[in-house]
Amino acid sequence: MAQKYIDLTTLKYLLNNVHGLSQLVQLERYKEHDPESMGMFLDSVKEFADRELFPFFKEMDDSPAAFKNGEVIVHEQVGVIMKKGGEMGLICGPFDYEIGGLQLPFIVHTAATYILDTANNHLPGYLTLTLGAAELITHFGNSALKDAYIPKMLSGEWGGTMCLTEPDAGSSLSDITTKATPTKDGHYHIKGQKIFISGGDYPYVENIVHLVLARIEGAPAGTKGISLFVVPKLRTENGNSIKNDVTTLSDFQKMGQRGFATTHLGFGDQNDCRGWLLGEAHQGLKYMFQMMNDARIGVGRGAAAISMAAYQASLQYAKERTQGRKLRSSGKKDPNESPCPIIEHPDVRRMLFLQKAIAEGSLSLILLAAKYHDLQLAEKDQATKEKYGMLLEIITPIVKTYPAEAGAVAVNNGLQVLGGYGFCTDFILQQYYRDIRIFSIYEGTTGIQSQDLLGRKVLMDNGRALELLLNEILETITEALTMENLKPYATILGDKIKLTQEVTAHLMPIATEGDFERYLSDANLFMEFLSHLVLGWIWLDIAATAEKDILKKDNTYPLDFYQGKIHTMKFYFKYELIKTSGLAKSIMHEDVLTLNSEKDYF
Amino acid sequence: MAQKYIDLTTLKYLLNNVHGLSQLVQLERYKEHDPESMGMFLDSVKEFADRELFPFFKEMDDSPAAFKNGEVIVHEQVGVIMKKGGEMGLICGPFDYEIGGLQLPFIVHTAATYILDTANNHLPGYLTLTLGAAELITHFGNSALKDAYIPKMLSGEWGGTMCLTEPDAGSSLSDITTKATPTKDGHYHIKGQKIFISGGDYPYVENIVHLVLARIEGAPAGTKGISLFVVPKLRTENGNSIKNDVTTLSDFQKMGQRGFATTHLGFGDQNDCRGWLLGEAHQGLKYMFQMMNDARIGVGRGAAAISMAAYQASLQYAKERTQGRKLRSSGKKDPNESPCPIIEHPDVRRMLFLQKAIAEGSLSLILLAAKYHDLQLAEKDQATKEKYGMLLEIITPIVKTYPAEAGAVAVNNGLQVLGGYGFCTDFILQQYYRDIRIFSIYEGTTGIQSQDLLGRKVLMDNGRALELLLNEILETITEALTMENLKPYATILGDKIKLTQEVTAHLMPIATEGDFERYLSDANLFMEFLSHLVLGWIWLDIAATAEKDILKKDNTYPLDFYQGKIHTMKFYFKYELIKTSGLAKSIMHEDVLTLNSEKDYF
C-alpha cells in the first residue's frame, strides 16, 4: 500500500507563503495564535492521522458501515476519531473562546481537517457534521439550547447530523414534508423521514443531535415555510436520558466512502419524537444556508484531499515501477537497455503534473475560501467584512465543485498511471476513484452549484461579487506582470478576464429579457469556464509567490520546490486554462439545444 | 432495476441505413446472407440476452469470480453463454464456411456481440477470447493444429485466452521472459508466468486453449525474439486427455467487471507444460498484432455497449423521477405547481444528450471499423483491399480509445442524473461506472494507443492512412453541403479538416528532425483531437442519412427519431467538436513541459 498520502510541505507553503497566515493572525480575533504553534498543531494532526486514520482506510472499505438487526455498525475508529478528535480541538477549533472554542483561524482548522481527509476520507465526516450542527445551534439557538448541546458536541461526546433530504425532495428542498406540530410545552412533535443522512446513527457516542428541516403545520408552501429543529436521538426528561423516537429505518450501501454510514431515518414513528425550534419559525432554510458555505468548503476540502492522496500514491508508484525505455531520436527503443522508472515517460509525467495541478490548486482554493471566511468574520471594518463576504459567496460554488469534478479527473489519471494494477483492489487508487465520486453530489450537485453560481451569485448586487473577484485576480496579474518570468502568463490571464466579461455581456441580456431558463441552460459550462479562470489565478498566485521567494534567495525550500510550482502553473495554463476558449464558444453558441428539443428525441 | 439496456432500433438504423448493410452483402463472400435474416438473428440474440445475460448482471458483481482452494469459481451463466452462445454462432460467426464458420459479415457479428455486452458486459469476454484464440490458430496454425482445436473452440466446448502480460512486462511486451525450449518431439516446453489473463480458468468448458507469447531459448532480445504458442490446459496423449501443467496461481480482484475472471497463470511449474509453435519462430508479436485490430475493436465495442446501457438506465430514471419545477421567466419557481419529471430540466437534458452523442456515436464508430474489416477481407480488388486496410489501421486506436474514454464520461453523467441514488449499490449506474473503467486499460492503455496513432499510424506510408481518412470525411462533408439544413455543420467540419492539417504540419518537422520523444509527448492530446474530428464526421454522417430519409419521406421510423439524430449531431458539434480548438492550441504550444522537467518538481 502507498505510504505517503499528503505533501505537508506544500500545505504549509500555501498556508504561510501564499495565503499569508502570519498576517491573518494579526487580527484581534486570532491574536493568541502564532504560525509556529499552528504549524506544530498541524504536525500533531498529521501524527494522529498516521496512527489512527490512514491504517484503517482500506479495511473500512472492505467492511463497510452497515445496518444489521436494527443497528448501525461502523468501524471502531469512529469512536476514536470522535473522542480523540474532540480532545485535539478538531471540532471546537473555530468556535469562540466564550462558548468553549479555540478561536482558531478557519484556514488552519480547514488545513487540519484536510490532513485527516487525505489519510482516510471515511472518518472526518463524523467530526465535521458534529461541528456543523453545533455551529447552527451556536448561531441561532437560545441559551438553553446552547447550554444543553454545545459542550457535549464540541468535546465529541455527542455527534451531530444535518437532515435535509427526503425521499421526494432531493435537490428540491421546497418539497420537504416532514411535519412539526407545536405543543403547549414549547417543543414540537416531529414526524417524517429523511434519507441520505451521513453519520445518521452509530454507537461510540452518547447521543446524536439531528438538525432537521421540517414544516410547521399551516406554514406557507415552498422554501419559505421551512423551519429548523434540534432533534436529539436521546432527550432528557426529569433528569433521565430517554429515547426520542428517532429510528434508523435502513441504510444506503454505496460505491465508495463506504465507512461513512449513510442512513434513512424515521422521526416520530411512535408519535413521540420531540424537536426544539431553532431561531424563528419559517427561517430554517435561510439558517441552513448560512452555514452551508462552510459545509460546501468542507466538500471541496474532502475532494481536494482525495486527489492529493491519489496523486501521492500514483507518484510513488511511478518512481518505483520500472517499465519500458526512453525513445531514442530514431523513435526506436534499445531492448538491451534496462527499463526505466515509468516517471521518465512524458505521458506519465503529463498525468502526474495534471494531478499535481489539480490537487495542489484545489488545496489552495479551499484555503483561500477559508481565509475569506476568516476575514469576513474577524475584520472590524464593515465594508471590508462585506467585501470578503461577497468574495466568499461567489467563490463557494466553485470551491464545492472544482475539487470534486477536476479531482475525479485527477484520480482517474492516477489510476491510469498504474495500468492494470490501478483497477485491482490490492492497490488503493481504485478506492480513491470510487470515494471521490460522491463529492459531485454532496451538499448540492454540480448542476445545483452551477445554477447557484450563474443564477444567484453572478447576478447578486448587480454583479458586484463577480466584479470584486475579477479585481482580486487583476491584482495578482498586476504583480505578476512585474516579474519577467511570469509576464507572458499574466498577460494570458488578463485576456481571460476580458473573455469572462465577453461571456457575461452575452449572457446578461438573456437574463434581463426574462428568458431565465435559457440563461441558465449552460450554467454547468459557465461553472467550468469560471473555475478555470479562478484556478489559473490560483496558480499564477502560487507561481508569483515562488518566484518572489526565488528572487529573494529564500532557501527554506530547495530550488526545485519553487520551480516545480512555477512549472505546474505553466502546465495548468497550457493544458487546462486553454479550455476556456472552447467553453466560451459553447456558452455563446446560438444553438440552444437543451430547451426546445422534444422528449422523443432521446 | 432499469429495464431497457439497449436501443435496438438505433443499432439497426446504423447498420442498415448509415452503414449500408444491404450493399455489403452484395460482396461474394457474404452473398448467402441478407439484411432481413441478419435482422432476425439480431432479434434472437437480443432475446437470448434478455433471458440469459441481463438478469444476472448485478449478481455477478455482488458475487465476483474468485480463486478459492485452488479453483477458479465463476457464475454458472458462464457455462450457458459458452454452450448456447456457441450454438447460436456467436463464436464461429465470422469464420469461413470451410472451417466451420458462418461467413457472417464482421459488422453483424460485432452488432450481435454488442447486444450481449449491453446486457451484461461480464460474460461476452469468455466467447470473444475464444474467438480471438481460434482466429490466430486458423490464420497461422498448420492443419494438425487446426483440426485439433478449431471445431471444439468454435462450438464453445473449449475456451480460449490470450496470454501476453507478465509481472514485469505490462505495456512493454519486449521484456517478456516466458521461456520455450524445443524438444525433439516437435513441441516445446513452456515455462513462465502470465498475469491479467482474462477468462484464464473456469469450469463449464472441457478445455481451455491458451495462446502464449514466449521466447525461444537464444532468441534475439526485444520484440523480434517473441514467438507464439498454443498451450492447452489439457493435452491429448495416447488418446487420453491429461493435465498440461498450466496452473492458476492466484486471481485479481477488481473494482469492476467482477464476473469476468482475471487470473495469474503459471506454465510449467512441474516442468511438464507443452506448447506448440504457431506459425514461424520469432513472429509471435506480428501474429498477435494481426488479430489485435479485432481485439481492439472488441474493446471499443464493450465500452460503447456499457455507455449505451448506462444511457438507457439514466434516461428511464429521468423520465420517471419527478423533482423540482421548470423556471418561470422571472427566474423563480411556483411551489404550488406539481414537480415535473427531471427530463424537463435543461441540465438533465444536457447530460442525456451527451450520453446519447457518445453512446450512439461510439456504436457507429465500431460498426464502421467492422465494416472496414469486412471490406478489406471481402473486396476482390487489391487496391481497394489495401485502402480499407489502411483505414482500419488508422482508425483502430481511436476505436479502442474513444468509446472507453468518452464512455466513462458518459456513464459519469448517467450516474449524475440519478443524484445520490446514482452512488448507491441498489441502482445500476455505479456498476456501469466501475465496469467501464477497465476499457481504457485493456489491450493497450490509452497512452499506448495514442503513441500507436501518432507514432505509427499517422506516419505510416508517408501519411497515406491519414490522408485516406480525411478523404472519407471530405466525402461526407461534400454530401452534407448539398443539404440546406446541414450546410453550416458541414462547413465547420471542413474547417476542422484544415485544423488537422495545421496540427500535423506543426508536428511532422519535429519527427523528421528526430526529436521523437517530443513529437510523441502530447500524443494523448492528439488522440483526443483526432477522435473529436472522427466523431464529428460519424455524427454528420448519421445526420446526413437521417436528413435524406426525411427528405424522401421515409416513414419507417417516426419523424422524431430522424430529428433526434440531427439534433444530437448539433449537440456534438456545439459541446464536443468545439474542443478541438483548445486541443490544437495545446498541441502546438511552444512549452514542452513533460520532457525537461526535473523529477523533484513533483
How would you characterize this protein structure?
The structure is a homodimer of 602-residue chains. The first copy, chain A, has 602 residues and is an alpha+beta fold. Chain A has a domain at 451-590. The first copy, chain A, contains 19 helices and 12 strands. The first copy, chain A, has helices spanning 8-18, 21-24, 35-53, 57-62, 77-87, 106-119, 124-140, 143-154, 284-320, 346-378, 382-417, 429-436, 446-457, 464-481, 487-512, 516-521, 523-551, 559-577, 579-587; strands at 66-68, 71-73, 158-163, 179-182, 188-198, 207-216, 226-232, 234-237, 240-243, 246-251, 262-267, 274-277. A 5-stranded mixed barrel of chain A has the order 4-5-12-7-6. A two-stranded antiparallel ribbon of chain A has the order 1-2. In chain A, strands 8-9 form a two-stranded antiparallel ribbon. In chain A, a hairpin with a 2-residue loop joins strand 8 and strand 9. In chain A, helix 9 packs antiparallel against helix 12 (429-436). The mean pLDDT of chain A is 96. Chains A, B: It comes from Arenibacter antarcticus. Chains A, B: Residues 322-341 are annotated as: Disordered. Chains A, B: Keywords: FAD, Flavoprotein, Oxidoreductase. Chains A, B: GO terms for molecular function: oxidoreductase activity. Chains A, B: Residues 39-157 form the Acyl-CoA dehydrogenase/oxidase N-terminal domain.
